[in-house]
Amino acid sequence: MADLRKAFLQAGYITNEEVLLTVFLALQLEKPLLVEGEPGVGKTELAKVLATAFQTELIRLQCYEGLDENKALYEWNYQRQLLKIQMSKDLSGSKELEDDLFSPAYLLQRPLLKAIQSQQKVVLLIDEVDKTDEEFEAFLFEVLSDFQVSIPELGTIKSLQIPIVILTSNNERELSDGLKRRCVYLYLDYPPVEQEVKMIQARLPDVGEKLAHEVARAISLIRQEQEIRKKPSIAETLDWVRALMALGKDRLDASLIDQTLNFILKTKTDQDVFQRKVGASRLLAAARAEKP
Question: What global pTM score does this model have?
Fold first, then answer.
């Protein structure tokens, strides 16, 4: 686990021991890791860090409503098949041509098949799995159970290496018990103030101590406001700090908060809520307090 901790630190991925232990055990047991949490807490970044740590390829399947097996697993290269038919009209209808058309040479690998057939151990990121429907989820559960797939024309293809699988979910819908049982479960929450300070310092080493703490405390207060719908993500925290540093600032002030609010609150509705319920003066007072 020490090597994993070191790899996380080198990548600037600051987390706690509970998260580190869960990831370590998922790797040791070769089980998929299901990571749930609010958008922007570092779920996708975790997969990227693991790919860097193991010096391997990151294969990403971005999920969306309507995603089916063909888009996730494989498709036949129909254009190339038609071209082959046109070039072999004299063999049209022959068994030889049919076998050739459905050979691996005409197979387009999508993320799941690519991960299974990889010669090396890769990181397979199945991002936002909660956006798919229950039918696709059942198919996915079957693939992750045996790490093999069946292609009617080619037979069963077994995994050469069991990939490191990370599934992420934003909790848009409840995932099935079957999928959860297959995975090691991890919930990522927004980091506490001191942890977010370390994140800022790890990614932006030139940041001043006071600015890092003031921003982290300010962001923490904003996230606590229930009426703000789109809470600032960690990436938006970093963007805000970069913007403040670009302006040559080493402390927050009320006018600066108002002028750069669009870096952390990305809708007019949330900005209005902030002005009505929090306000720059209150936020500044909280940011400069010794405790969040």
Answer: 0.86
